[in-house]
């Protein structure tokens, strides 16, 4: 299995030899179609110019304010929220407020992350802070976070209260993960375990919430929601492992980011951590380069920048030390663990197949 080989419209389960196929793109599109009307409605509540800035971020308009059919992201989280409602025996529409809430929190984090990381491109166009300025990126991110809680609490049900609590915990963990990620950039070494803990917070927590929140809104008990949450947590770790591979070796035309994106930001992602922990000549050389980086942090204004050849050299060292292969295998391990979490959940076979296909999609995607 390749970590970047997904090209078709359907996925055959990696876990079985079943000939059944699930149209993953149709599931993702359903997530968009059912959640976007409510998402637009709540975003329209924002005061100008935040409503316009948010619309630009979601790809609904271009920088000049004209309607656009931009890339709104993969929509994995909304799709999972709707499927989780069905796993609880409810119609997918029951999961829509949860899907929207999770998507709002996810995009709150993207707006702030892009600014903190200095990323100038997302989804193949300029980021919000680059177009509208850092202040608007911060304000709109804050506003989306507030809307996420509002859209759940206005349901006024016991299930909505339970869902809001899960979202609050996931958001706190997400922020913990971002703080950990930033602290790693100035360190010479980060262990694989530390990296996995950070990624479990930064990515796993919100995906775990997405897979449980629809079920909670659909009336599932905590035992069912917790099992779905475990699936989502490990799916998030698989998702991030693939993201880490794409952050170094992904094609800019497909990822929408610069080449060597994570290396430019000195991120201690899984391939880097695994390479440093492996030992050997390539690992030691990489460690020397990163130690020199740590001493030069904050001195970019003095001209300490790298050319493309330097990034290519570092990527090659990571691969030679085994970081690329280890991360690809870790994505597969987390994928298998995610599917194992579903074994104790009573759900229709068709829903189980959909969750399995989405897990497969996450591990073999190209962007």
Automatic annotation (TrEMBL):
**Carries keyword GTP-binding?**
no
Please name the GO terms of the biological process aspect recorded for this protein, alphabetically. isoprenoid biosynthetic process
User: Which keywords appear in this protein's UniProt record, sorted alphabetically?
Assistant: Magnesium, Metal-binding, Transferase
Source taxon at top rank: Bacteria
Q: Which Pfam families match?
A: polyprenyl_synt
Q: Name one GO molecular function term.
A: metal ion binding
Q: What PANTHER family does the entry give?
A: (2E,6E)-FARNESYL DIPHOSPHATE SYNTHASE (PTHR12001:SF71), GERANYLGERANYL PYROPHOSPHATE SYNTHASE (PTHR12001)
Entry's family note: Belongs to the FPP/GGPP synthase family.
Protein name per UniProt = Polyprenyl synthetase family protein
């Amino acid at each position: 299995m390749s970590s970047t080989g997904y090209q078709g419209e359907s996925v055959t389960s990696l876990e079985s030899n079943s000939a059944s196929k699930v149209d993953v793109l149709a599931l993702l599109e359903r997530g968009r179609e059912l959640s976007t009307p409510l998402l637009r409605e709540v975003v329209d509540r924002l005061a100008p110019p935040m409503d316009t800035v948010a619309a630009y971020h979601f790809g609904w308009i271009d920088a000049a304010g004209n309607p656009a059919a931009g890339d709104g992201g993969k929509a994995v989280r909304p799709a999972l929220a709707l499927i989780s409602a069905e796993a609880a025996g409810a119609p997918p529409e029951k999961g829509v407020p949860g899907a929207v809430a999770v998507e709002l929190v996810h995009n709150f984090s993207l707006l702030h992350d892009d600014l903190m990381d200095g990323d100038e491109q997302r989804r193949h166009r300029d980021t919000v802070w680059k177009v509208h300025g850092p202040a608007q990126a911060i304000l709109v991110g804050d506003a989306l976070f507030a809307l996420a809680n509002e859209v759940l609490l206005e349901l006024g049900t016991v299930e909505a209260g339970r869902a809001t609590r899960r979202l609050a915990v996931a958001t706190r963990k997400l922020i913990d993960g971002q703080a950990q990620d930033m602290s790693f950039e100035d360190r010479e070494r980060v262990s694989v375990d530390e990296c996995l803990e950070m990624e479990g917070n930064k990515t796993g927590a919100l995906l775990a919430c997405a897979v449980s929140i629809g079920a909670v809104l659909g009336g599932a008990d905590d035992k069912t929601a917790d099992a779905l949450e475990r699936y989502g947590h490990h799916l998030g770790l698989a998702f991030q492992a693939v993201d880490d591979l794409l952050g170094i070796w992904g094609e800019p035309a497909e990822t929408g980011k610069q080449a060597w994106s994570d290396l430019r930001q000195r991120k201690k992602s899984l391939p880097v951590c695994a390479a440093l922990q492996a030992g050997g000549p390539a690992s030691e050389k990489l460690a020397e380069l990163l130690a020199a980086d740590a001493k030069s942090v904050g001195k970019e204004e003095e001209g300490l920048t790298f050319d493309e050849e330097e990034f290519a050299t570092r990527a090659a060292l990571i691969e030679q030390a085994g970081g690329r292969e280890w991360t690809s295998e870790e994505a597969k391990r987390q994928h298998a663990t995610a599917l194992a979490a579903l074994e104790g959940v009573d759900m229709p076979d068709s829903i189980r197949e959909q969750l399995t296909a989405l897990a497969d999609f996450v591990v073999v995607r190209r962007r």
